[in-house]
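During the second year of the project, the team shifted from modelling isolated chains to modelling whole assemblies. The rationale, set out in the original proposal, was that interfaces cannot be judged from single-chain predictions alone. As a representative example for this report, we include one of the complexes processed in the last quarter. Its constituent sequences, exactly as entered into the pipeline, are reproduced here:
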Amino acid sequence: MTLKKIYKKWACVALTGASMLGATIATANAQQVFRNTITGEELKILEVAPKEGRDTPAVKSFLETGINPYIGVKGCLPRGEEAYLVACSGCHGHLGEGKVGPGLNDNYWTYPKNTTDKGLFETIFGGAQGMMGPHGGDLQLDEVLALIAWIRNLNIGEAKDAEWLTDAQKASFKPFNAKEWDGSGKAEAAKEQCTIPAN
Amino acid sequence: MKQRITTSMLASASCMAVAAALQFAITAPASANQKLVELSKSNENWIMPGRDYSSQNYSPMTQINVENVKKLRTAWSFSTGLLHGHEGTPLVVDGLMYVHTSFPNNTFALDLNDPGHIIWQHKPKQDPAARSVACCDLVNRGLAYWPGDGKTPALIIKTQLDGHLVALNAKTGEEFWKVENGDIKVGQTLTQAPYVIKDLALVGSSGAELGVRGHTTAYNVKTGEQVWRVYATGPDSEVGIGDDFNKANPHYGQKGLGTGTWEGDAWKIGGGTNWGWYAYDPETNLFHYGSGNPAPWNETMRPGDNKWTMTIWGRDADTGQAKFGYQKTPHDEWDYAGVNVMILSEQKDKAGKMRKLLTHPDRNGIVYTLDRENGDLVSANKLDDTVNWVKQVDLKSGLPVRDPEYSTYMDHKGKEICPSAMGYHNQGHDSYDPTKELFYLGINHICMDWEPFMLPYRAGQFFVGATLWMYPGPKGDRQNYLGLGQIKAYNAISGEYKWEKMERFSVWGGTLATAGNLVFYGTLDGFIKARNSDTGELLWKHKLPSGVIGHPMTFEHKGTQYVAIMYGVGGWPGVGLVFDLQDPTAGLGAVGAFKNLQNYTQMGGGVQVFSLDGKNPYDDVNVGEWTGKS
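Output from the structure prediction step:
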């Protein structure tokens, strides 16, 4: 993409009513380029994503680093679950076990990049093949981060293959247990905040 | 988005109209409908998916016949450049072939004199979010043709997955009008081939898996303005039910049932979309189609008969008003969506009385034949003796006699239910040979386990509520997931099958019968086959680039008979093909029955055309050559 085009695009974003803040975020995180999982084309995140939920600290941090600060944050799980049930479970199953879409709760990925936060975000935002349409326009960015945290939480694979976990997270990893979640886990999580952990 | 008919379109349309008027002045017909009927009689045309209004898919041509079919070879082929399911069949009119595709629903016009040249192409830009509300892969079932009337040019009418109905100038491919028939935000999509009757373009709707309330709508073919719309559920006024509805068969049900057979407002999200094939009888002025499954699939969430889902309709073409409606599967428990093909025939019944009939191989495993003038049930037989949810259909009451062992309900996993939700017959467009009085039926041989679960309705989200496991029926090989299909010749009066053969996979796309004593069909693993239509003997087959889920057609061009078929595997049986084989979840659910398909075929769409010895326009090597600047 030529510089001129990029310039045009930002100008366009600003003109079409995205807040100036939106435009600044965009330029500030120019180092992270997000790409469509199939075509490799650059995703126009700020042109497509809903206006709300764009400028949370977590979104800003994610767009800059490609690391999802909500991973492992309990307080984000109920939100992530809600988004998942609304937008994904019909095709991927209640627990991510797979239906007309592949399972999301194991460690096998058609697209290896989905082991990273950034890759999974790109697949959700821009879609993949067939019925895996893009969800960038219908989910708020902050919601997508909570959703990714929920998908990781659904995992029942082996911790050692869970590339998205840090060593510390691997050590404390427990495979998802639906009974426990419905029993007490969800109520407990709902009491906590969905924010970036202090440290 | 609102209905969109922009002034610029209308402006360019009227320019076009002038040009067309000049062209048509010579042959201006009495009415567009008569012209369509006339066109359909010519072997050089195939102007609707079922060839003519009877939807018989039967050609009187004999150049290709049982004696010489072995000599069929590829004449030419065309790649659509797209993956995913290519259902239906191309149209041929006036020396052009019109080819449709899977999403994003491109349309191509090819010159039969030089098929290497694309005369025009229409590539709509659709919201890709439509893909996430498609029920089962990104299929499309084809096009409709309206012949023009001297003022308005001939049109190709098409559907887009994103819920739009579009009319294109048949000669240039330019958009003539475009209307929004449904909103993808609430899950309303379109996959059907539209249907032209007189000066109306009819279209159904898709999305029962997302709780969409089904409707059928007629648009003025010249302007795109809505003329009438009728629903499958709801108040009589909206369903199109008047005083004489089901007069001949009051026991089918009459008034107030589109709301009365539902709990509360459940009919508003009750499904009953129709995305299958239509048929029309110009003499009765009735058109026929089937409304689909109620939503959600979980029956516990919708007590009652759920009328008028799962219904065979006879409706007046001018008003949409229903003359009769026969519900085949009251209170469906298995997703036996009733949208399949309606084939019209004139035959003597058992008492020797000549009758106007309609035959419909239903998803529920029963092939129904009705008197299409009044809806009387003439016969209802099993598509295979392994159908088990129903013991028989009581012809007097019209009701299926169920076997409770195969019912589905909450907190119960139903096992070994035959047919599966895919039906023993799905959307395939079958054929009827009137000289033999035989229907050629492509069959699925698949059974299932079914476990319901509760879920809330959310607009634009899947609203199914059942987990399914599918596998070959009792006559197949359950170890290896093969033996999933059949092909059969059926007599609707005697109820007998003249012959039947097993297939490795479903015969998903339907059949073509010809006076050459042949029946043609495609297979999911990518063969086109020809059998002797008297005996079922396999006479010829050819391996196509990809599996088939559409039906073959045939046409004559410059004295040569061609057989054409679309390939491009996908659709419900092909949803698993986007999976990668290593994925441990790739065998789950709906995908399970066809997990072996990946070892036989891969995606990729196109049309392949055959003739005896492969005779084709390029036999003259100078055809299509670039001869330098002119």
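The interface with chain B takes residues 86-87, 89-91, 93-94, 97-100, 102-103, 106, 108, 110, 127-135, 137-138 of chain A (CB under 8 Å). Residues 178-191 of chain A form the longest helix (14 residues).
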